[in-house]
Design a protein that fits this description.
CATH architecture: 3-Layer(aba) Sandwich
Structural class: alpha/beta
CATH superfamily: Vaccinia Virus protein VP39
Helix content: 40-55%
CATH class: Alpha Beta
Strand order of the largest sheet: 3-2-1-4
Radius of gyration: 15 Å
Shape: globular
Amino acid sequence: MNYELLTQFADQYTTAESDLLKKINDFTYKNHAEPHMLSGHVQGQLLKMISCMIKPERILEIGTFTGYSALCLAEGLTENGVLHTIEFRESTANIARSFFEKSKHKSKIKLHIGNALEIIPQLNEQWDLIFIDADKPGYINYFELIFPHIKKMVLS
């Protein structure tokens, strides 16, 4: 199958981006040296769908980048829910913060800047949903650190 055609199909038939997500996408591709790191439209809508299905109280995102995926994940938060997102690079975190300030979810998003392996233990949370999207070689370290803090799901 042609990857490009599949991508076009998915993009065409996936729920449209909000205006704010479109602005993040446009800004990132015009101004960031690594725009390919953006979660993007289709992945963002998948994250939103998962979050809306779970209705999490606590979300952890490792790798904020310019804020696209965090805003998608925040869509499913409960009324009192909180999303903690961690970005290593301060300059990129500041871009994300500027977009979070324009979001209806701004009070639910806690942006942390620095090394996730140092920040996560300080959060002292039990997580309903975790999205690891940073430092690909470090995935196993994040997994081992957070796995004991994932809430157990009870299916009825």
